[in-house]
Amino acid sequence: MNRNFATEIKPPKFKDPSLFRKSALINNEWVNAKTGETFSVIDPATENEIGKVPEMNVEDTREAIKAAKSAFKEWANLTAKTRHDYLLTWHSQILENQNDLATILTLEHGKSYKESLGEIRYGATFVEWFAQESRRIYGDIIPSPYQNHKIIVEKQPVGVAGVLTPWNFPNAMITRKVSAALAAGCTVVIKPAAETPFSALALAELAVRSGIPKGVINVVTTDKHVKEVGLELCTNSDVKKISFTGSTAVGKLLMEQSSSTLKSISLELGGNAPFIIFDDADIDSAVEGAIACKFRSLGQACIAANRIYVQSSIYAEFASKFVDKVSGFQIGNGFDPKTTYGPLINQKAVNKMTRHVEDAVAKGAEILIGGTKSTGNFFYPTVLTNMTKEMIITSEETFGPIAALYKFETEDEVINLANDTQYGLAGYFYSRDIRRCLRVADTLEVGMVGVNTGVIHNCEAPFGGVKESGLGREGSKYGIDDYIHIKYVSVSKI
User: Fold this and answer.
1) What is the DSSP letter of 369?
2) Which residues of the chain fall short of a pLDDT of 70?
3) Are residues 347 and 390 both part of a single domain?
4) Pairing of strands 423-424, 466-467
5) According to its UniProt record, which residues of this chain constitute the active site (predicted)?
6) Fewer Cβ atoms within 10 Å of its own Cβ: the N or the C terminal residue of the chain?
7) SS3 227
8) Quick one: 312 and 186 in the same domain?
9) What is the pLDDT of residue 465?
10) Helix orientation angle between 226-235 and 248-258, rounded to the nearest 10 degrees
């Protein structure tokens, strides 16, 4: 495994420096916090400050909500075709500025520039998709049991949506949520993660350039007031919808807080994804799929493989080939063209990796590669073998570059192991037996299944989980439903 932590590596120069916004957006005006406070955003690769943004509080948040509410009626009353056109213009702006957006993303997140570009392009697909879906929000005419009577069903936007996004995919999580909201006719107040606010602000800048009317998109940045701002969004009666991606613990809190006003709420929460390789699988293909699934964003993804189950007869071969792939990783600054994976987001994440490895080793696991931290926020991609269910990693989402390999004997056994978790976001398996593929896909207690693939995300497919992995779906034709309510109109004496 190679590494290059050189801090002298410089990011590419911005083609358009004005995309690197350092103010929040309320009512299409770039503003500071009313208190004048700011907080620093740190590059996790170099641990240097890359900029400051406003430290906004509840009062600032109320201003953003007020702006979104004021803009709602006009935005909702536009034709679907008009909203479609605005979103397509935003989509074009994103693609035209994808290199600068990728630079911002790598600066604040640390992932490789190549991976950042991939996220920007992936995120843009949601804007294009929901632009098209805005014109397909169909109602119904239901046959009435009475003469001279019609039953009409209309779909209308719910109102102002509070959008709370995570740091691991700071561009794509915003586009996936916000484009659906805007397509439905909702306006939004975005609260991006404190670690990665610049991606949100750049997207907002491009939305302004696209002509999206004032107040439709608002961005509130905060670090030390996160709880208070979240509470305001959840309890303010002018906010009709909350969309959140993050931990299950925080999701439960937001759901509880939102109950005070009976808000519509969608939650994309934690995962503990099983990745199963049966002995009839194409092992080389399974290795490639597991690498993609486990180490995307250095494992900092809710759908990353957390427990890799390998049937005993192929366990040694799979482990050997898997380690060979990991040994070729280049760990370093995301702007180094040779880098395949960058740093973890912060020291808290590094400490969690250390705790998981130490616990596994103390309980009998063997480190095949990696297993230790390096300088700063870097942690070597790790492969552990001889894993058992007693180890912390079995029940706790790692959210980092630790691949834990478990051995199993039978299909029934591994299905029971895979489903033995409170989470149910994603699951994966490899097999060449079509009957097994259908059987296992049906039996896994998850919202998304990858069969002979480790990559399942795209704008056309519904993204979301079951059990304690959340509520609702994002992306796909279903993704707009969470921003719409149904109105029944009874028309008599026609």
Assistant:
1) E
2) 1-8
3) yes
4) antiparallel
5) 268
6) C
7) helix
8) no
9) 97
10) 40
> Is residue 40 one of the residues assigned to a domain?
yes
Neighbours of 37 (CB within 10 A): 16
Phi, psi (degrees; rounded to nearest 5) at 294: -80, -40
CA dist 142 and 322 (Å) reads 56
156-178: burial string, b at 16+ Cβ within 10 Å, e else? ebbbbbbbbbbbbbbbbbbbbbb
In whole angstroms, how large is the CA radius of gyration of the chain? 23
Residue 47 annotated among the catalytic residues of the structure:
no
Beta strands at 24-26 and 29-31: parallel, antiparallel or unpaired: antiparallel
Query: What is the pairing mode between strands 423-424 and 264-268?
Result: unpaired
387 assigned to some structural domain: yes
Domain count, the chain: 2
DSSP reduced 3-state for 453? coil
Count Cβ atoms below 10 Å from residue 133 Cβ, excluding itself. Answer: 23
210 and 336 inside one domain: no
Contact 273, 449 (CB under 8 A): no
State both tokens at 191.
């609260």
**Residues 180, 63 within the same domain:** yes
3-state secondary structure of 245: strand
Decide if 7 is inside a domain: no
Q: Which tokens hold the place of 92?
A: 């074009």
- Cβ-based neighbours of 61, under 8 Å, separated by 6 or more: 189, 191, 220, 229, 232, 233
Choose, from 205, 232, 268, 474, the residue flagged as catalytic.
Answer: 268
| Token duo for residue 403 | 């691949």
Q: Residues 5, 90: contact at Cβ < 8 Å? A: no
Helix crossing, 283-295 with 315-326: angle to 10°? 50
3-state SS, one letter per residue, for 75-110: HHHCCHHHHHHHHHHHHHHHHHCHHHHHHHHHHHHC
Q: Is 70 exposed, middle or buried (0-12, 13-18, 19+ CB in 10 A)?
A: middle
Which residues, 6+ apart, have CB-to-CB distance to 48 below 8 Å? 7, 42
Helices and strands (H and E) in the chain: how many: 14, 24
